[in-house]
Amino acid sequence: MKPAIRPASPHDVSAIARIYAQAVTEGTASYELEPPGEAEMLERMEALIRSGYPYILAEDGSGVLGYAYAGPFRPRRAYRFMVEDSVYLAPEAQGRGIGRRLLQTLIAACEQRGFRQIVAVIGDGSEESASVKLHRAAGFRDAGVLRGSGFKHGRWLDTVFMQLALNEGDGAPPDPQSVPERLFRGETVR
Question: What is the largest CA-CA distance in the chain?
């Protein structure tokens, strides 16, 4: 059975926190050293959803297999048209195309909201990295490398930036009805 992709909700936070905790403690994609608890994960999720950013997950009969979200790239308001994506999979979901489906759905959701750029900030981003391969397959282009920018599990890690233009990128003026413009004006977005 093909996993379903749907919006995440607060009811999913336990599974999401479990997937992220494994990525933090065993992996190098996140530069957090201690996994946040469920309350912190819920707060992070609700802040993104409340501000109109997409937060989705993949599930099948066995439960949540992975999740993805987009959030602000940087807090400065001129960055409002650029989002940063995150994709995390449970170990049993890796290599099954679920990450690709989550990223494709996330890109479409960001386009629908009127964002113009999406950036992937990939920890331990070597050419062999599954995340680098995933983003390259989705059309992302290399945008830079911060060498030795993180230290985790006893080694220095490079951070790779990859970028994808959405909705004409910087080739047209912003849509005044886009989520980033509505947030800029202080409007409530749902």
Answer: 47
Query: What is the strand order of the sheet 117-123 is part of?
Result: 4-7, 55-60, 63-72, 82-89, 117-123, 155-165, 141-152
Nearest to 132 by CA among 153, 94, 161: 161
- 0.85 cut: is pTM over it? yes
Encoded tokens for 149: 């920018």
Q: What is the pLDDT of residues 103-122, one digit of tens each?
A: 999 999 999 999 999 999 99
Mean pLDDT for all residues in the chain: 95
Comparing C-alpha atoms, which of 115, 103, 114 is closest to residue 69?
103
Listed in sequence order, the residues at least 6 apart from 76 whose beta carbon sits closer than 8 Å to its beta carbon are none
Strands (DSSP E) contained in the chain are: 4-7, 55-60, 63-72, 82-89, 117-123, 141-152, 155-165
What's the pLDDT score for residue 82? 97
* Model pLDDT for residues 130-150, shown as the tens digit of each residue: 999 999 999 999 999 999 999
Answer whether 125's CB lies under 8 Å from 147's CB: no
123: pLDDT confidence band, cut at 50, 70 and 90? very high
Q: Which segments of the chain does DSSP mark as H helices, in order?
A: 13-26, 38-50, 98-112, 130-137, 179-184
